[in-house]
């Protein structure tokens, strides 16, 4: 890292082991780290001992810094000749507002480097044993946000088109508006019995996974007290957790179903 530069870096979905080597390199060099709410303490422990750490997290329903103020703070720090690391949960360009921050920096002639990270919609589901693509299930996956700039249910999403075009739908930040999202998907033709998984605190020791269906998800969320941050996955790929729950296998538990899709075991299928 050079003085006056800002690195926009994805910290991954939570588990410190999922941070990239470029991210670790940045932590060891940065003079100041501006980090989000979903960046774990285990990751920040790798920072230089004398690095300044500035919290800039945004959590729904709680007081938080305005995006414009965060972006301009990065500009000010860089102009002071600091090596600035902007550390964001997941990937900075996947529902992370990294594009907005990078645009502001470049408009102020601040040099920027983008360091991608593992997005929660992929890495978090993988830790739950759910592949976002599986050739017996889907040839497309759609990632959507569960709220817009104002924190409301997005009104620009064409749920009919999404429902028809994508076998698997992954919803970020959707817990607050789960009833509206469920109703929109069912109104668009997704059946009540469609598999749904909700992964909370993904990749962390506190990870919780709820397997349910579209029709029963609201009652099950209430009964299990599932809360944000969480990823919602809708589609038959969720069934693969019955055989791919690798964390359960590590604990010595047997797979619940070696053929959850009813297609025959892979070594028995001719192509």
From TrEMBL:
<dbReference type="InterPro" id="IPR014776">
    <property type="entry name" value="4pyrrole_Mease_sub2"/>
</dbReference>
<dbReference type="InterPro" id="IPR050161">
    <property type="entry name" value="Siro_Cobalamin_biosynth"/>
</dbReference>
<protein>
    <recommendedName>
        <fullName>uroporphyrinogen-III C-methyltransferase</fullName>
        <ecNumber>2.1.1.107</ecNumber>
    </recommendedName>
</protein>
<comment type="pathway">
    <text>Porphyrin-containing compound metabolism; siroheme biosynthesis; precorrin-2 from uroporphyrinogen III: step 1/1.</text>
</comment>
<dbReference type="InterPro" id="IPR014777">
    <property type="entry name" value="4pyrrole_Mease_sub1"/>
</dbReference>
<dbReference type="InterPro" id="IPR000878">
    <property type="entry name" value="4pyrrol_Mease"/>
</dbReference>
<keyword id="KW-0808">Transferase</keyword>
<feature type="domain" description="Tetrapyrrole methylase">
    <location>
        <begin position="6"/>
        <end position="217"/>
    </location>
</feature>
<comment type="similarity">
    <text>Belongs to the precorrin methyltransferase family.</text>
</comment>
<dbReference type="InterPro" id="IPR035996">
    <property type="entry name" value="4pyrrol_Methylase_sf"/>
</dbReference>
<dbReference type="Pfam" id="PF00590">
    <property type="entry name" value="TP_methylase"/>
</dbReference>
<keyword id="KW-0949">S-adenosyl-L-methionine</keyword>
<keyword id="KW-0627">Porphyrin biosynthesis</keyword>
<keyword id="KW-0489">Methyltransferase</keyword>
<dbReference type="InterPro" id="IPR006366">
    <property type="entry name" value="CobA/CysG_C"/>
</dbReference>
<dbReference type="InterPro" id="IPR003043">
    <property type="entry name" value="Uropor_MeTrfase_CS"/>
</dbReference>
